[in-house]
Structures are given as structure tokens and as C-alpha cells.
Amino acid sequence: MNKDKKNITSIAIGGFDGMHIAHQSLFNNLTSNGAIIAIETGHANMTPKEQREKCTTFPIFYYELNDIKNLSGKEFIKLLKSEFPKLKKIVVGFDFCFGKNRANSTEELKSLFDGEVVVVNEISINDIAIHSRIIREYIKNGDFETANTLLGRKYEIKGTQIKGQGLGKSDFVPTINLDIKEYLLPNEGVYITKTKVDNVSYPSISFLGHRVTTDGNFAVETHILNKDISAHNSNISIKFFKKLRDNQKFDSFEKLKEQIVNDINDCKIYFNLNL
């Protein structure tokens, strides 16, 4: 991966939160020594910070919006040309805007930049236009079949392990409780997932929401199927496949435990595991 700006000949510019299929179509127009310019707005919560780097082989350079938002379009292009002296090609989406108050569009880009400008048209799958804001809505609603199709991969969150209630292993099933920061979370419910612990991925079932039957606190917890995994402050991530059900309150611990067993069986069927 070439991280030397002096040798970069093409760049793709955008926010690129999600690094979804439409973003990848921009990257496909880059030359072999191309790079990605990610404009950081502070609102990236599908692929926060350096998580974008897992979704591409191109180097990514991060530009804080606050540092460039007062530049005119001409000044912004001048900045790019000074930082990338061999720049010959810029790739953007059809709705790209730049310069102070987003005053410039792709037409001004073509006139201000003396190299090649590639403008990628809107891309749709199943008549759904692929935009980060649209994918966020599918994620928030727990529709991961659609969200993952538009992303081109399974949606993933990362967190650190924290202490749970202590009820799981003693009264229900063992779970890993996570503290999740910066990531967009789906609505409350139970999800079919895969959980990665120490770089090993396991079929799992995950709960996100307020524990309305027990202590009422919000939790993100995951149960790994057919394994008793000891995780202690490990790097843990969860990939989402499908929502099983909404969060609900049960009249008793026994009813809750019965539902958990049913959820686990549904998850095993999904992954074609032996019951």
C-alpha cells in the first residue's frame, strides 16, 4: 500500500462511511497507485475512523472537514495538487460538492482541475439507490438482509468486553457483554450474528437493548453457539446476518429462558448446525 502522497496519481474523494458498493465503484476507477480521500465530518458511524481501511486495498488519507470547509473550490483543488504533485485523475460521485458552503459541484471540478475527472452515476440494487444515509435506515430498522446487500458485506461493530449482570452463565446461557462506542446500532432485539474473538469467528446470537425482564439496563451481549469461549478484554466484533425478533418483556425468568432456547435453536438452523 503506497502511503506516499508524492507518488499518488489518482484519488477518489468523499465521506465514504460504510465503504459500500457505490463507494467501491468509485475506487474501481482509480489507477494502481491511487488513493482515497476520506472527508471526516464526525458523523461516520458505520465505518468509524480507521475501520474503512479493512474495506479497500487503496491507502486512505483523512481530511477533517473543519480544516477545509472554508476553502474556496479553487483553494481546495490547489491544496490537493500541492499535496499530490503527480495527481492526474479525480474520481467523485454524481452528487459531489466542494468548496465553502458546498458551492461547487462536479461541473466546477472539471473546470478547476486540469486533469481527468470521472463522475460516477448513482448506483442502485433492487431499485434501491445506494447511499450511506439509506443504509443507515436499514441498519437502524434491523433489516440486515437489505443493508448487507447494499454494503456488499456483513455489517460489523467492534467493542470491548465489560462485566455483565452475571446471570447469563448461572441462570441462562453464557454471554459476552460489550461496550460499543461510535458505531451505529440497530433497534432493540435479538439477531443472528457471528462473533469474532481473538481473530476467530463463531456463529452466535446477539441481543441489543434494555434488559426489560431483569435489571432494565441497556446491553449489547452475544452468546457463542456450541462453544464456551473465555474472552477477557479481547478485541471482539459482531457481524449481523438477520433479525430474529424484537426486544420483549417476559412474565418470568422461566419464560425468558424458554425464549432464549428457542432463539438459539433458530440460530442453529440458520447456520445449519447440529441441534
UniProtKB/TrEMBL annotation:
Look up the record and name the pathway of this protein.
Answer: Cofactor biosynthesis; FAD biosynthesis; FAD from FMN: step 1/1; Cofactor biosynthesis; FMN biosynthesis; FMN from riboflavin (ATP route): step 1/1
GO-annotated molecular function: ATP binding; FMN adenylyltransferase activity; riboflavin kinase activity
Gene3D superfamilies xrefs? HUPs, Riboflavin kinase-like
- Note the SMART domains from the entry: Flavokinase (SM00904)
Where is each Riboflavin kinase domain found? 150-272
EC number(s): the record gives 2.7.1.26, 2.7.7.2
The catalytic activity, as recorded, is: riboflavin + ATP = FMN + ADP + H(+); FMN + ATP + H(+) = FAD + diphosphate
Task: Tell me the Gene Ontology biological-process terms attached to this UniProt entry.
Answer: FAD biosynthetic process; FMN biosynthetic process; riboflavin biosynthetic process
Enzymatic class = transferase
Superkingdom classification of source: Bacteria
Q: Which UniProt keywords apply?
A: ATP-binding, FAD, Flavoprotein, FMN, Kinase, Multifunctional enzyme, Nucleotide-binding, Nucleotidyltransferase, Transferase
Q: Which InterPro entries match?
A: FAD_synthase, Riboflavin_kinase, Riboflavin_kinase_bac, Riboflavin_kinase_bac/euk, Riboflavin_kinase_dom_sf, Rossmann-like_a/b/a_fold
The record's family statement is:
Belongs to the ribF family.
Sum up the protein's function in the record's words.
Catalyzes the phosphorylation of riboflavin to FMN followed by the adenylation of FMN to FAD.
Tell me the protein's name. Riboflavin biosynthesis protein
